[in-house]
Amino acid sequence: DIDGVGHKYHLDLVLEDDLDKDSTVNCTAEVLYHLGNKNIAPDVQFTIEGELKNTDEADNIFYNRIKSLETELVAENIPDSHGNVSPEMEPIRLLAWVASGYVIWQNSTENTKFQLAQIKHVKQVKRSDEYLEFDYMILLHEMVSQEIIPWQMTVLWHPQHGVQVTQDSRQPKHAAE
Amino acid sequence: DQVLHIVPETFQQVQHLQHLCSTLLLDLWKPQLLEDIWAGEDLHIRVPAPLVQEVTDSLDQHIISYKALIPELQELVGQSMRRERSSHRQVPEGYDYTQYHPMEEIYQWMTQIQKSNSELVTQHYLGKTIENRTMYYLQISQPSNKTKKIIWMDCGIHAREWISPAFCQWFVKEILQNYKSDPKISRFLQNLDLYILPVLNIDGYIYSWEKDRLWRKNRSPHMNGTCYGTDLNRNFNSSWGSIGVSYNCSSEIFCGFGPESEPETRAVAQFIERKKSDILCYLTIHSYGQYILTPYGSTTKPPSNSEELMHVAEKAAAALMGKYGTSYEVGSTSLILYSNSGSSRDWAHMIGIPFSYTFELRDKGTHGFVLPPDQIQPTCEETM
């Protein structure tokens, strides 16, 4: 408890590589939830012990594949109702996972627990520069209220420059139907 | 299944169609309500496979023309997702327990399971859902002259938690395949009866297959059909409506207009109330989160047998982890998850059932409700 400021949490955690379960990295973090104003994202400071795996090869393969598409990528329901994701869509899902992490961070309080539930819709937006741009409509599941919240997010990505969410907005409940 | 496209030409045809749809409980896709069927307007109805013949005969008799809009609905829905299956899917010998099954197939499975294991299994009527579907439970009971204590397990109280009914089916299969050869299971059955309800929220489950994969509640209509669904796990008479609920119908945790307001809740509650002196353990299966939850959700005050409850749960979690290393957190809902009232597990304990647990199966959020089928087997094996 920090009087007049908010609640600070110290965390010791282990990061696990989603694609290589044996690969783990220790991490410490400090999270500060601000008092009162719920519109400010919690402050996060962290240190990672060691290095994260290099993903250049896979990144470049994905990048080149999308760059060479004749028509813009469009897809729906990732995963599908049964939980299946086609191999071609797996990077699209991972990108949404990362980007949704940003959206979740920006909208979290001590009383929320968000998870990405599903990508309802994704559309590639053509760009003249080297970045890839995707317009996502995702569904976030909030554990306490059990609500499914549609959220629009515009995601920029480049193998060397990483992920950026340039625009995001919460949608009304029926937006995803 | 087929989706038929019909344009009724006269008022008499409209009347006949309304009658047909309501008596056979056909699924109206367009319009949504019987009263909105008009002459000259498009009508789309989904007809379940077993009724196609009857419906088309009736239409022919009344000289109503129709077209198959989506002739092979089941195929279309399953196309991109499922592998080829044998034509004997309904027969347990050919039943694929590593895939998710729609409600019709689960009904057929229950009938088959009883038929092929009639010395041990009986199917019983429990009640009806709000949309008038029949709820059945399976009783697995070894004939004996002593009265046995009961373990009750229900799955699928929340529509979108597909791994839950999949687990109930798996569980039944495992017991029936191994009760003769596995000494643990055979000893179990000498002393205990198992009552399994594979899908509690049948209407919701069907809705999650056909309309909205992430639907949670049942399908009871409120406010003149402008708002649907009560959260069945907030509808039981355990500190009902006090905490962790919403009184707003459009919320996912709407607790209903009163405790046990929903027919599904009443069907389960009435049965368990009647048998409560013989019920040793109440289990309710959910996803996701990987928890074994003990009472209560409505208060942090521990239940009277808290130590024993925790001890058993911790042993279960350890055994579970021993299989594939999956970690489950153990504790009371109000302490490790969130506060809620009206849950079935709390109610079961409050009426005197000593061991009452909620299982939240895999995973921890990576896939959440949409757990891929290749995780059905490991999830079920470890939970077994």
Main sheet strand line-up of chain A? 4-5-6-7-8
Structural class call of chain A reads alpha+beta
**Secondary-structure element pattern of chain A, one letter each:** EEEHEHEEEE
Assign the CATH topology of the largest domain in chain A.
Nuclear Transport Factor 2, Chain: A
- CATH architecture descriptor text of the largest domain in chain A: Roll
Note the total helix count of chain B: 12
Largest sheet of chain A: 5 strands, antiparallel
User: Strand portion of chain B, in percent?
Assistant: 15-25%
Helix content class of chain B: 25-40%
Rg calculated over all Cα atoms of chain B: 22 Å
Helix and strand topology:
The complex is a heterodimer of chains A (177) and B (384).
Chain A: E1 6-17, E2 20-34, E3 43-48, H1 56-67, E4 74-78, H2 90-106, E5 114-125, E6 132-142, E7 147-158, E8 162-170
Antiparallel strand pairs in A: 1-2, 2-3, 4-5, 5-6, 6-7, 7-8
Chain B: E1 2-6, H1 11-23, E2 27-30, E3 43-47, H2 52-61, E4 66-70, H3 73-78, H4 103-116, E5 121-128, E6 134-140, E7 149-155, H5 163-178, H6 183-191, E8 192-197, H7 202-210, E9 221-222, E10 227-228, H8 263-275, E11 279-287, E12 291-294, H9 306-324, E13 329-332, H10 333-336, H11 344-350, E14 355-361, H12 376-383
Parallel strand pairs in B: 7-8, 7-11, 11-14, 12-13
Antiparallel strand pairs in B: 1-3, 1-4, 2-3, 5-6, 6-8, 9-10, 12-14
